[in-house]
Amino acid sequence: MTTAPHDHPMPSTRELLGTRQRVLVTGGAGFIGSAVVRRLLADSDALVFNLDKMGYASDLTSIRQLLDSLGSEAETRHQLLQVDLCDGAAVQAAVDRADPDLVMHLAAESHVDRSISGPDAFINSNVNGTFHLLQAVRSHYASLPEGRRSGFRLHHISTDEVFGSLRADGRFSETTPYAPRSPYSASKAASDHLVSAWHHTFDLPVVLTNCSNNYGPWQFPEKLIPVVTLKAAAGEEIPLYGDGLNVRDWLYVDDHVDALLLAACRGRSGRSYCVGGHGERNNREVVDAICAELDAAHGKHHPHADLIRSVRDRPGHDRRYAIDPTRISTELGWYPRHDFSSGLQQTVRWYLEHQDWCRKVRERAQYDGGRLGSVT
Predict the structure, then answer these.
(1) Which of 74, 238, 249, 296 is surrounded by the most beta carbons within 10 Å?
(2) Going by C-beta distance under 8 Å and a sequence separation of 6 or more, which residues neighbour residue 184?
(3) What's the pLDDT score for residue 78?
(4) CA–CA separation, 203 vs 182, rounded Å?
C-alpha cells in the first residue's frame, strides 16, 4: 500500500478552506457526513450547516460529544437544518439560510440491500433530492458577488459501485464507463450525471469523487464490518453471502475525509477523482480478520470463525471493486494514512466498546440486525 510521504504532510483543514467560512454539508448526521462535520468543527473556524433529514441511519451523538469537548464557541458554529432533500422549497430555504461558500453533498440512501427491498426511497432521495439541491445551489451561486463566486464549489460525493463489477484484474478509474447493477448504484449514477450536466449546461462549479467501501467508528450497524463484529461478539451466527469471495476495496473513513476536503477545496472544477484505500479484501478475508480480532480479545477456546454460515447470495451481487487513486494522489497529494489491518483493529475494538450505542440506534431505527434485500 502507498502511504503519505513523511516529507509531504497534508495541508490542514483551515489551510484548505482559506476564505471559505460557510460550509453546507448534506447528510451531515450520517456516517461519512458526520466525520466531515467533526473535522470541520475541530480543525477550522468555519460555520458548518448540517442539512440532514434525520432518517433511520442519522445520528448526532459523535458530533455532540465533540462539541461538548470543544466548548460553547464550537457549539455556535454547528447548525442543524432538518430538511428532506425531496422538498424543493425547503432545500432552497436551507441553502439561502446557509449562504455557503462550499457545499459538500453526502446525503444519500446507501445500503444496497435496502435498495433491493425498497428502491423507491433511493430514487426519491438520490435522484430527485440531488436535483433539488442542484437547483437551489445554482440559484445561490448566481447571487454571489464575484469575490465569493471564484472560490465556490459544489462537491458531490459518490461511490465506485456506479462502475459495475470488475473481473479478477484491473481497477476503476475516472475514465471507467458507468455500468450500475443495483437500484442503489443506478440511483447514484443518475445523480452523478445530473451534477455533471449542471456543470456543463449551467456553468455550476462542481467536483465529483467516487469512493470505495468506507469503514470505521460510528457507522450504522447494518454494513458488513459492524454486523459481523456485533453478531460474533454476541455468539450469533455470522452470515456470509454466497461463496464469500466478492472483493471490496476498503477505505478508512478518516482517510476519506482527507480526500474529500482536498477535492472540495483544490480539485479542478468539472473534474472527478476516484478515492480508494489500497485495501482489497474478499468478504471471507474480512470476516476471518474480524473473528481473529475477537479471538485475540476473548480467547480462542471457541474460535469465532466457527459461527460463519454461508447464506444465499445477494441478487446482482457485484464480484469485485477496486480503485486506482492515481489522479487524486498525483494532482492533489492524497494518500491513505491507515492500512486495512490497523484500521480494522481500531474499528472492531470501537464497536466492542460501544455496543450500547449500537443497540440504541438499532432500536430507534427498528432494525433487529436481520438480513435485508431479499427478492420475493
Answers:
(1) 249
(2) 109, 110, 111, 112, 114, 115, 122, 126, 161
(3) 98
(4) 31
Q: Is 160 a catalytic residue?
A: yes
Asked if residues 247 and 320 have their Cβ atoms less than 8 Å apart, the reply is yes
As a dihedral over the C-alpha atoms of residue 122, residue 111, residue 48, residue 103, rounded to 10 degrees, the angle is -50
Buried b / exposed e over 290-308, threshold 16 CB at 10 Å, is bbbbbbeeeeeeeebbebb
Residues of the chain where predicted confidence (pLDDT) is lower than 70: 1-8, 300, 371-376
The strand order across the sheet containing 213-215 reads 213-215, 247-252, 280-282
Task: With respect to residue 348, please indicate whether it lies within any of the assigned structural domains.
Answer: no
Q: Look at strands 78-82 and 102-105 and give their pairing.
A: unpaired
**CA of residue 124 relative to chain centroid, distance:** 19
Domain assignment of residue 117, given as a range: 19-215+252-278+320-338
161 is catalytic: yes
Domain presence at residue 137: yes
User: Exposed e or buried b for every residue in 157-174, given b needs 16+ CB within 10 A?
Assistant: bbbbbbbbbbeeeebbbb
> Residues 141, 184, 273, 335: which is the catalytic one?
184
Q: Would you say the pTM of this structure is higher than 0.90? A: yes
The DSSP annotation for 312-362 comes to: PPPTT---B--B--HHHHHHH----S--HHHHHHHHHHHHHHTHHHHHHHH
Q: Read off the CATH number of the domain in which 266 is found.
A: 3.40.50.720
At position 244, the amino acid (one-letter code) is: G
Instruction: Count the alpha carbons within 13 Å of 83 in the hemisphere toward its beta carbon.
Output: 26
Residue 9 in any domain: the answer is no
Inside any domain, residue 47: yes
| Structural domains counted in the chain | 1
The pLDDT score that the predictor gives to residue 144 is 98
Q: Which of 52, 109, 160, 192 is catalytic?
A: 160
Note the pLDDT tens digit of each residue in 153-193.
Answer: 999 999 999 999 999 899 999 999 999 999 999 999 999 99
Scan for cell 500500500, then name that residue: 1
Q: Dihedral angle at the C-alpha atoms of 307, 310, 313, 317, nearest 10 degrees?
A: 70
Cell (9 digits) for 265: 477545496
SS percent in the chain: helix, strand, coil, step 5: 50, 15, 35
> Is 255 among the catalytic positions?
no
- Positive or negative torsion for Cα 365, 371, 374, 376: negative
Contacts of 370 (CB under 8 A, 6+ apart): none
CB-CB contact of 115 with 182 (8 Å)? yes
